[in-house]
Amino acid sequence: MDKSRLGRILAAIGVIIALALAGWGLWTVTRPAKAPAKATAGAPAKTATRKKATEGKRPTATYDELAAAVQDVSDKYRSESGYTPYRSGPYAGMSIYGLLDMTDDMDGVDDDAMADEIKTADTMPDDTSPEDLAAEITKLRNAYDAWDKRLWKTACDRFEEQSITDGMKPVIQAKPDCMGAAGDPPANQGTKESYQAMVDWYENAADLSARCSGGA
């Protein structure tokens, strides 16, 4: 092969390689995958901005909504404080407030805090912002929930100690053959339901004690 022919072949190969490299470079720059990648990358930033704006907005309420919340909490407050757990015996008809007051256990309920919060919510200034009205509703409901927990925990602890541990258990232990049918008292869970269960158990045990003693 003469040198001139070899030179033409090498030149042709060089042109092919150059065209291939140029084509690769052009495809790299203009490939369609670039545009979707940019659009996808930009989406989280917009979503995050919208989320941040939403999170920064405080809830609002009207005076009518606050008044409705005050009425609702006041009704629940009266209902709970006036609850009568006993169905028979000397304490039948007495409210839980009366029972706790009789044994000087009302301090644990901190009733004044609940009454003060209801009064505060009921007398909010006329220029209170919608955001502050909503915050006051939340504060009022949280205060009620805390008060309700204090009420029934105090009632349960008092009843377990005085009426069961110091009261009925010694009676059962004194007459195990007859009083054993009373069974074990319910566990103290510090709730209204738990308190009522303990009272029911106590009343049943008291009836059983009367029968064991020949009084019924």
What do you see in this structure?
The chain crosses the membrane at residues 9-27. Residues 37-58 are annotated as: Disordered. This protein is mainly alpha-helical. It has a domain at 63-212. Helix content is 73%, strand content 0%. It is built from 8 helices and no strands. The protein has helices at 3-30, 34-55, 63-81, 96-102, 111-122, 130-174, 176-179, 192-212. α3 runs parallel beside α6 (130-174) and α6 packs parallel to α8 (192-212).
What topology does this entry show?
Blueprint: H1 3-30, H2 34-55, H3 63-81, H4 96-102, H5 111-122, H6 130-174, H7 176-179, H8 192-212
Helix pairs in contact: 3-6, 5-6, 6-8
Short summary of the structure?
With 216 residues, the chain is mainly alpha-helical. The protein has helices spanning 3-30, 34-55, 63-81, 96-102, 111-122, 130-174, 176-179, 192-212.
